Amino acid sequence: MKFSIGRIGEARILPVLKDTVPQGMEELFAYLKERELFSGAKGEIFFDLGLHGSNTLLVGLGEADKLDAQAYRQSFYKAGTEAAKARLTQVTVDLPKFPQICYRTAVKAAAEGLYHSAYRFDKYLSQEKKKPVLEEVAFQIVAGTEDKVTSALAEISNILDGIDLTRSLVNEPAEAIYPETLAKAAQEALTPLGVEVEVKGLEEIKALGMTAFLAVARGSAREPKLIIMRYRGASEDQETIGLVGKGLTYDSGGYALKPAASMAAMHTDMGGAGAVIGAMSAIAASKLNRNVTAVVAACENMISGEAYKNGDIIRSMSGKSIEIGNTDAEGRVTLADAIYYTATKENVSSIIDVATLTGAVIVALGSHYTGAVTNDQAMMDEFKLASDLGGEKVWQLPADDDYRDMVKGKRADLLNSVKGGAGSITAGLFLENFTEGKKWIHLDIAGTSAYDAPHGYRPAGATGIPVQSLYYFCKGDNDQTRCC
Predict the structure, then answer these.
(1) Is the pLDDT of residue 294 over 70?
(2) 7-42 per-position pLDDT tens digit
(3) Which of 278, 320, 419, 428 would disulfide-bridge 442, Cβ 3.0–4.6 Å?
(4) Annotated catalytic, 384?
(5) 258 assigned to active site
(6) How far is 303 from 298, CA to CA, in rounded Å?
(7) Which of 7, 184, 258, 475 is labelled catalytic?
(8) How many helices (H) does the chain have, and how many strands (E)?
(9) CA–CA distance, 427 with 408 (Å, rounded to integer)
(10) Domains of the chain
(11) What is the mean predicted confidence (pLDDT) over 35-57?
(12) Cβ of 240: how many Cβ atoms within 10 Å?
């Protein structure tokens, strides 16, 4: 979707607070109130479209004292959906300034809601089955805000392009996205933005001693790839943030074979990889004054005579041994080497790993919150501020020695699967063993990475979570008490 300032098309979108009347529309609003057609409640829509209509789409923002970025996202998502139903491809948004919310924040949130309404993954549909979408939006803005709005639209466009990249990668079937093509997609998307993308193949991965990663990968005929993406927006003496994404481009469960119904969606098991690639796109396009390195250990978890087995004891790059209680708990095994590599070879000061790691997090939090485990509360507090800015909910899970003891093994140093519940917590704390003492956050996005049906202002399929949170965390300066 293309955003600009000015006017475009014949129709306009006008946001309205609950029980308020825009200047010059008193007669229309008296009519709407009398017939109870529109009051400005959040997400409420009235479209005066037609030969003799005003071609105005009224969208309610809700009550003034509850006005926030989420209200804009949700309401403009509905407005965009209605505009598409009317087969509009261009529309102008008349955006008034309300004192309850920063104008720049309002512009970004409105643009985001409209973008989400227009996203489609329909490349495999025949042309006649594709639905029309809103393509261009112009903002008619308050005088004197041009510079603020221009920078806001540029930033949110870069973020949305990153989300679009993540969604498109995660929504692709496993026959289209596998380790080699995922690496190629990262190169094609990021290299033009100034990101150095290094791809290591099988022999180089062996030379690094990434035996845990290779144990998972060896059941597949497709060669694994280690994808390293380096963005340098600050001087060399500044710290580097590390992002690690789970890169299982397909997960059959291995010898702990998944049922068919569960297996069909396992092309989305690289949601963490997609998220860090999308975040790197947004970071580089916005030219953030930060150094960020992202790492993805990409492979498939399949069954063959070479595949690793339940009951195996394998070594990791760190030297720690892992007893495999469940080959379907493979993501943490690949991440063990990816995190250790990032901590020891890429000179990072902190690490955030992102993974569709456990069904347990869905049991605990459903699809509304990403689960988080950390070893550094100050870092976690900063990440929560970033996630609030992006409208991506995060819930911090407890992490103490009672849970850490659960992943300790008797036949090996660590267990990749434990009994006793708390599956999302123990999976996260398993990974802590490979951070080498670096500040670290683990994000379990199994419930939030992709939806079976539309929810809120996000459509079905890949959501792009947590691209925005990662972007704002890397950007820093997440003070929401001032107008940014």
Answers:
(1) yes
(2) 998 899 999 999 999 988 999 999 999 999 999 999
(3) 428
(4) no
(5) yes
(6) 17
(7) 258
(8) 15, 19
(9) 12
(10) 2-143 (3.40.220.10), 161-475 (3.40.630.10)
(11) 86
(12) 19
